[in-house]
Amino acid sequence: MSVSAELADAAAGASKVAAVHEPKAAISRYRWVVLAVAFSAFLVTFLDRLAWANANLLAGKSLEIPIAALGVFVTAFYVGYVTASALAGFVTDRVGPRLMLFFALAPLAASTFLFGLTTSFAMGLALQGLMGLCAGADYAACVKAVASWFPRAERGRAFGLFSMAPSIGVAGANAIFPGLLNLIDWRTLYWGLGGLTALVAAICLWLLTDSPRERDDGVRSAPLDPATWRRGLAALCKDRNLVLIALAGFGANWGTWGFAFWATALMVRGYQLSPTDAGVVALIFGIAAAVSKPLYGLLSDMLGGKRRNLVIYDLIAFAAMLMLFGLMQTKAGFLLAAPLLGLTAVVYSPLLAAMITEKVDLRFTATATGVINAFWQLGSVIVPTIVGVVFAGTGSFSIAFAILAAGPLIGAICMFAVRE
């Protein structure tokens, strides 16, 4: 029995969240407000996350933290992020994305602001872990909000636009934060980000509505009873397609975030590019990645929601471009390869997000998304260390990128086995 059938059976007699309201969502202008708010929530968490990549040297000097220990802050953030990702989906399916986003972003704002007051390594480590816990709670809530308001025929483009947030975050952080830190102290940067995050939290609470039904008649769906919830979760865990999508996303994220964390450092260390030139390469990569997502999402909608093959083509191309980028040796070569790599590096993410929402009952969307996203993010946690060890041991730029390319290549193999 498919997961959809098992969930339908598990939910017999319970109140319906209803897909019957999807036509209203499709014609409602308000769905674009929901998408804009979800995008803003996702974007601000990335800005908070990426601030450390730009402020770490200044902060380390101020706090007298050895350079070798600065990466531990990233680990602390991601431990919190992965933990929250795995758990937040369950809560979102019970309380709704509106409250979940507010209760994720409000403490994220506070912990980001407090990080600007850090006086010791231990305090900074604890606050980074708390920031990760809060930031990790928002993805599943955002996905559920978008899936609740957009019918299946529009989810490719909707998730394509929503998924631009990380790319814009990476490009914006690399373009804005270095220059800003020449004008203000690193502490002031975190105070400003804390204020911005608080503003987005308030917007989520003020503007978001969980579902078309709630907006139309003010009636919230009854919470799932524990027995139905347990049976639904068991059905999710047994679904072969969801397991394969989780494995594919792990490999894809391995390549994406390994590149994001190491590309600049490897270009500077391996081929003596200036930090400014390496930053320009990263910026071009980010812009190309941001543009490609909605286009690929729209294409999948135009193909009638057939997304599996598009993911396969993309992951194969991504692996090939990582290998090609690893063979570059000059600034001109990196500038030529960067946009091509950006066009393939992240376009799988909106398609995989849409596929998850299409394979589960809407009431379990956040649960499935949260658990799978937590597994995906393990790739982000593991790959920086492995690539660092490989580069330190070999000194080879091309071997380091071959390690990155293995992730999306394995992801493509997993997607071949997915039944659409």
How are the SSEs placed, and which strands pair?
Blueprint: H1 3-10, H2 22-27, H3 30-63, H4 67-95, H5 97-115, H6 121-135, H7 138-149, H8 155-162, H9 164-180, H10 186-207, H11 212-217, H12 226-237, H13 240-271, H14 275-302, H15 308-327, H16 331-345, H17 348-359, H18 365-394, H19 397-416
Helix pairs in contact: 1-12, 3-4, 3-6, 3-7, 3-9, 3-10, 4-5, 4-6, 4-7, 4-18, 5-6, 5-7, 5-10, 7-18, 8-14, 8-17, 9-14, 13-14, 13-17, 13-18, 13-19, 14-16, 14-17, 15-16, 15-17, 15-19, 18-19
Question: Could you characterize what this model shows?
Answer:
The protein is mostly helical. Helix content is 82%, strand content 0%. The protein has 19 helices and no strands. The longest helix is centred in the N-terminal third of the chain and has 34 residues, at 30-63. Residues 1-23 have low confidence and may be disordered.
N-to-C order of helices and strands: HHHHHHHHHHHHHHHHHHH
Shape: globular
- Quick one: how many beta strands? 0
Structural class by helix and strand composition: mainly alpha
Strand content: under 5%
**Helix share bin:** over 70%
Compute the number of helices. Answer: 19
Report the mean per-residue pLDDT as an integer.
82
Summarize it.
The chain has helices spanning 3-10, 22-27, 30-63, 67-95, 97-115, 121-135, 138-149, 155-162, 164-180, 186-207, 212-217, 226-237, 240-271, 275-302, 308-327, 331-345, 348-359, 365-394, 397-416. The longest helix has 34 residues, at 30-63. By secondary structure, it is an all-alpha fold.
Task: Record keyword descriptors for this entry.
single chain, 420 residues, mainly alpha, 19 helices, disordered N terminus
